[in-house]
Amino acid sequence: MTDEPTARETTPATITPTRLPFGPHWNELDVPDQTGRTALVTGATGGLGLRVATVLASAGARVLLASRNAERGERARQQVAAVATDAAPEVVELDIADPDSVARAADDIRRRTGDRLDLLVNNAGIMAPPLRFADDGTELQWATNVFGPAALTWRLLPAIERVSGSRVVFVSSIVHFRGRFDALRLERDGEGLDYSPFAYYARTKLADLLLSRELERHFRRTRASTIALAAHPGFSSTGLVDATVADRPAWLQTVASRGTRLTGQPVEAGALPLLYAATATGVRGAQYYGPAWAFESRGPVTRAARSPSSRSDELGALLLGFVSRRVGLDAPR
Fold this sequence. Notes:
Elements: E1 38-41, H1 47-58, E2 62-67, H2 70-81, E3 90-93, H3 99-113, E4 119-122, H4 140-161, E5 167-171, H5 183-191, H6 197-222, E6 227-231, H7 240-244, H8 250-263, H9 267-270, H10 272-279, E7 288-293, E8 298-303, H11 313-327
Parallel strand pairs: 1-2, 1-4, 2-3, 4-5, 5-6, 6-7
Antiparallel strand pairs: 7-8
Helix pairs in contact: 1-2, 3-4, 4-6, 5-11, 6-11
């Protein structure tokens, strides 16, 4: 990688980085000092989100852990608190698929932080579940992976844009290359029509890449010092696959869980592109990071490939209009 940051002068004794077979590449100990910075991580009670929150706290950040479950949130808070080197972590109640919860959480975060937020990592997401709907009747993957993160980001912009050098990171996926949509497709997706779990997932991950690009265009137009960018974890052994097959036959759950553990890279490796996008020096807005090896499924951090659709101004404008109507908020222009 180029543009790598300088490693911290002192290594926190409370966090031991996992040994990864990447050689002398960027790793957790290269995360610059985060003391004095405030970060919000969604989906922070397990998997990638918990690891990102843990590393940020160990580097000195004040970390807000967004969780819809109080018990899981408290367990995660205790785990992160054990390695925090400066400010104590806090739990924010948030159900990312519930518009009312998103609004309450955004108000809570702005109050707690004094309207100053350095980093937002939009990590929360679900992958290819059976057809389900959020309480407002929206298909659950779109509600969780796109509408909720967009609404939360837009509501927090006054707190983010006032902080010099702040960042917004969206988490996408390798499968965004399979994502396809147009105006009719989007409307059908929102209602859960013609439901295909993985096709929906691919489209939501394409949408996340487009949202990051459109938000960066907004920051450039307004000459804010904030940047928006994206990252993906490759194929990582997180709880996402387990959650995907939770309602499937027991044998399939066992096969999927064991297969992911055997073939997926560890969570610590999957979190590195997110951490790089969130903290590394030299990154720029609208960039996209992921693993370097095996078709971006594993390995050290590098600039990730993105589909032509994810660079489309036409699709970006179409998506902003669709999301704005769905969440009842004006998209940042």
